[in-house]
Specification:
Helix content is 39%, strand content 9%. The protein has 267 residues and is of the alpha/beta class. It has 2 domains: 2-90, no CATH class; 109-266, Lysozyme-like (3-Layer(aba) Sandwich), CATH 3.40.80. Bound molecules: zinc ion.
Amino acid sequence: MGEDWTNQWSGLRAADSREESRQEPRPESPQPRPESPRRHRREKEAGRPIGRRALIVGGAAAAVGGAVLGWDQMAQDGAMREGMARDMWKVPGMRKPRKEGEVDFTGAQWVAASSANWRMADRPADYTIDMVIIHVTQGSFDSAVKVFQNPAHGAAAHYIFRKDGHVAQMIRELDVAYHAGNREYNERSIGIEHEGFVDRPEDFTDEMYRASAQLTARLCARHKIPVDRKHIIGHIEVPEATHTDPGDGWDWDKYMRLVRAARSANA
Ligand SMILES: [Zn+2]
């Protein structure tokens, strides 16, 4: 197990640090964001839920060995602690079963984002989801879909709405999408993109507001997210955000009214 272990472990570390240093180029802005030391400090203080990092550090040999040897052999391996089997899927590379093409929002079209633009997780078991983050694509629906399928882009959101109200889901809600430009906010949120430009409020059609509000209401119900502007925020409101979307043209009063209405209709 020794050599395999070492290789895989360094692979995991590499993957992790790659993500830490990942810039998040997003469709709405060309500027890269500088890495923030403050952000990392805050993450350390946050007292994360049983992190995969802790899990890996606590039982790296058993965990990574499991990926190589399979569950049975690993279970026989005296090195494995009881509870670890339960949490094994939290280790990168260990998948919790999920169905291809399955969506979290009925009616959404499934289009998979490149796996380079999100990170596998099992929210809300590993991270609590308590936020919805609203974006505007600065381009068309089609170009946003395309860019989220591009592994070089390094960013993608869970959902994208088209002007006619059609929605594509590109990342499962249980996974962490790179959309907020802030690791902590990515881990705790669902990202929703809207076709259009921040300086063209006419892009934000009634159909789109309504359909998006339906989704946000569902997210709030499912994840017990309060329907308020502390928990339903714009990308620009993410700490250290370099992006300005959804912009002044986004009608927050209207959107929140629609979300509240949809939320109480579903309650
Ligand atoms: Zn954005």
